[in-house]
Amino acid sequence: MTLICWICVFVLVKIYEGDYSATKNSEKLWRFRPPSAILHTLKMATASFSGLQFSMSRSCIPSSQKIADASAVVLGGKSKIGSWNKLASAYNVASVQSFQRGFTSSSIKSVKSVTKATSESSAESAVSGLPINLKGKRAFIAGVADDNGYGWAIAKSLAAAGAEILVGTWVPALNIFESSLRRGKFDGSRILPNGSMMEITKVYPLDAVFDNPDEVPEDIKTNKRYAGSSKWTVQEVAESVKEDFGNIDILVHSLANGPEVTKPLLETSRNGYLAAISASSYSYVSLLKHFLPILNPGGSSISLTYIASERIIPGYGGGMSSAKAALESDTRVLAFEAGRKRKIRVNTISAGPLRSRAAKAIGFIDMMIDYSLANAPLQKELSAEEVGNAAAFLASPLASAITGTVLYVDNGLNAMGVGVDSPIFKDLDIPKDQH
């Protein structure tokens, strides 16, 4: 029936097609097409729409993609949008200027109504051929305490792709974070590509060092920084999310801590080393263990690692390099176990240096950024947005066959075997970025 309606609309438009203009007396004149042209139009319309019906009826294409693909073919829009706007949902419909050239306003209205079956609002930007669409998905990001780290950037990218955002914030930082949100301190950082503001549905207090209330020592329970907060162990947070929302689709681990990170490994104490492992790697095992029952099959889990897991980075001490190595090893094992149990994909992003508040605690972050600028294949400073976009990709159906991997988002620095800014290479003709 839909096909017949389309054919009728197409034929009527072509029958009455012509130069429509207003005369001096404002009389509207139509130039009718001859019968032979009408017959030709009818044949062409039948052939065209039969072909469209055939292409859309192929069982191998999901129904949602059929609509998106058909819309892209009809509208013929070309995308000239940046990395942020590529995250825009498929529901953002392209400009209809090219479409208007072949159809009258009445036919455009019909097409808009069909497109709106997968749309909530009209759009101003072009449709991307492979949009990242996470509409209807819910994400929990553990480790968001401000607006300038990778956790915030990942939340923002997931939100830009349509996901609902829940966050877990370290208990001692919770009051400051929530207060900053209420007072609008983060409003500038919350703006999404479409101009709207990222909404955080709920903020949960979380200390991922403790699995359940029985493990919490008395000095932590009575610590004034934890006063007023409850149900903040990993088990309790997972239970609270289940009670509040039932299920989630995306789990993000964006937290780490090494109390002796500034100490060389040879000077690191046992307690300092084990604390780094506990907070930075086992916390991910615990998080996935407790959230796995409420992760929808086909969902995605993502963590953040660093190249120190496999390369020597002097100054990144206190057992943190060991913790990142453990995290990457655990990623592979968890990918197998979670994949077999719940069809959950588990990946980690090895991100380059970023001037976040957490990174500044290490003490040499500016040096590492300068080193990357001088030696990476791409001579530019890494942005948190680029890591966020990579996470959105890993969480999306576009990465449906990717699991157990370390994805490097570091301008290619991981591929380098030497520092080309060394005086040893001064006589080599090494290309420099001229931009």
Automatic annotation (TrEMBL):
<keyword id="KW-0276">Fatty acid metabolism</keyword>
<dbReference type="GO" id="GO:0009507">
    <property type="term" value="C:chloroplast"/>
</dbReference>
<keyword id="KW-0560">Oxidoreductase</keyword>
<comment type="function">
    <text>Catalyzes the NAD-dependent reduction of a carbon-carbon double bond in an enoyl moiety that is covalently linked to an acyl carrier protein (ACP). Catalyzes the last reduction step in the de novo synthesis cycle of fatty acids. Involved in the elongation cycle of fatty acids which are used in lipid metabolism. Required for normal plant growth.</text>
</comment>
<dbReference type="GO" id="GO:0006633">
    <property type="term" value="P:fatty acid biosynthetic process"/>
</dbReference>
<comment type="subunit">
    <text>Homotetramer.</text>
</comment>
<dbReference type="Pfam" id="PF13561">
    <property type="entry name" value="adh_short_C2"/>
</dbReference>
<comment type="pathway">
    <text>Lipid metabolism; fatty acid biosynthesis.</text>
</comment>
<keyword id="KW-0809">Transit peptide</keyword>
<protein>
    <recommendedName>
        <fullName>Enoyl-[acyl-carrier-protein] reductase [NADH], chloroplastic</fullName>
        <ecNumber>1.3.1.9</ecNumber>
    </recommendedName>
</protein>
<dbReference type="InterPro" id="IPR002347">
    <property type="entry name" value="SDR_fam"/>
</dbReference>
<keyword id="KW-0934">Plastid</keyword>
<keyword id="KW-0732">Signal</keyword>
<dbReference type="InterPro" id="IPR014358">
    <property type="entry name" value="Enoyl-ACP_Rdtase_NADH"/>
</dbReference>
<dbReference type="InterPro" id="IPR036291">
    <property type="entry name" value="NAD(P)-bd_dom_sf"/>
</dbReference>
<keyword id="KW-0443">Lipid metabolism</keyword>
<keyword id="KW-0444">Lipid biosynthesis</keyword>
<dbReference type="GO" id="GO:0004318">
    <property type="term" value="F:enoyl-[acyl-carrier-protein] reductase (NADH) activity"/>
</dbReference>
<keyword id="KW-0150">Chloroplast</keyword>
<keyword id="KW-0275">Fatty acid biosynthesis</keyword>
<feature type="signal peptide">
    <location>
        <begin position="1"/>
        <end position="18"/>
    </location>
</feature>
<comment type="similarity">
    <text>Belongs to the short-chain dehydrogenases/reductases (SDR) family. FabI subfamily.</text>
</comment>
